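Severity: low
Component: inverse-folding endpoint
Summary: output formatting inconsistent between runs
Steps to reproduce: submit the following structure tokens with default settings.
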């Protein structure tokens, strides 16, 4: 009997200690959340919430030729929509008006800005997203941005515009089936995947993340600071660079100079068999291997090679790796 009482006393003591520790911790968390929320226009507390369709914005295409969509912290999904209007649907946890985006139309431009409302979630909360429905044609300039979240062009999405800018500070970007004069896709922390892109100028950049592209055509500038690059079905020319990561570029058609360079990683470049070009390869620590070694001159260390392949040398091809091997092959 005495043993049971001692055990109960120990359990009660443990519960009191846990309570004493947890209460200040909860207070600190709440104070932090509230202080953080002061940076925003409002605060909403959600208990076990689930996102619902809270707001729908419809913009007639006849009123604008430019669209700018910007959110602080939301996943954005982009779809092909009706040809006569832009539709934006907000699936939010909060039902408050302060949580809904603001839309301003001026001088042919629609600016849709997500509200900076702090939602404090207790015991879960799922499903917040923004759906953007774009007509295939009719918009000149399009900009879509989220600070924290993913941007995804969904199945059957197609777009024709002059300039398209897609940006995420922290999140992945998937973008497909776009024709434009200029396409810019960038993320600070996240991966980029692009498919079926035709543009006069294509700029893809990631500070920390991989870049994968397939069936892209145009003048390209593709760069990542920390991550790899995998480019398949490339038509056109441009620069492919990585500070820390391997690069693979497979070209179907080359119409200008191609430069592939990584500071740390391997380089693999596949070129059309009948392409004529001047060539330079260099590696600080690694090997150089090509399908046209008989056309090249190597230095004594064998880590630098130059030469001319084919009858003309109007196109220049350069492949360099600071720490890694270089492999250039014919398709």
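Observed output (run 2 of 3):
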């Amino acid at each position: 009997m005495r043993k049971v009482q001692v055990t109960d006393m120990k359990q009660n003591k443990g519960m009191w200690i846990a309570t004493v520790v947890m209460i200040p911790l909860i207070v600190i968390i709440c104070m932090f959340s509230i202080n953080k929320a002061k940076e925003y226009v409002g605060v909403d507390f959600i208990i076990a919430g689930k996102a619902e369709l809270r707001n729908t914005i419809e913009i007639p295409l006849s009123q604008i030729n430019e669209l700018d969509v910007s959110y602080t912290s939301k996943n954005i999904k982009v779809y092909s929509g009706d040809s006569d209007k832009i539709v934006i649907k907000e699936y939010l946890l909060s039902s408050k008006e302060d949580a809904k985006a603001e839309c301003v139309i001026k001088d042919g431009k629609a600016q849709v800005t997500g509200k900076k409302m702090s939602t404090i979630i207790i015991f879960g909360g799922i499903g917040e997203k923004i759906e953007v429905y774009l007509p295939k044609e009719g918009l000149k300039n399009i900009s879509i941005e989220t600070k924290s979240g993913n941007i995804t062009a969904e199945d059957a999405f197609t777009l024709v515009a002059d300039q398209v800018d897609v940006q995420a500070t922290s999140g992945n970007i998937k973008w497909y089936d776009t024709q434009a004069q200029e396409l810019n896709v960038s993320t600070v922390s996240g991966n980029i995947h692009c498919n079926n892109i035709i543009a006069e100028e294509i700029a893809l950049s990631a500070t920390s993340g991989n870049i994968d592209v397939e069936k892209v055509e145009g003048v390209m500038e593709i760069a990542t600071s920390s991550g790899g690059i995998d480019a398949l079905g490339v038509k056109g020319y441009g620069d492919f660079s990585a500070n820390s990561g391997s690069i693979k570029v497979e070209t179907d058609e080359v119409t200008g100079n191609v430069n592939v360079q990584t500071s740390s990683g391997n380089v693999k470049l596949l070129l059309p068999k009948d392409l004529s070009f001047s060539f330079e390869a260099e590696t600080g620590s690694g090997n150089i291997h090509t399908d046209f070694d008989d056309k090249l001159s190597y230095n004594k260390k064998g880590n630098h090679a130059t030469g001319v392949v084919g009858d003309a040398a109007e196109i220049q091809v350069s492949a360099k790796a600071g720490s890694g091997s270089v492999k250039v092959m014919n398709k």
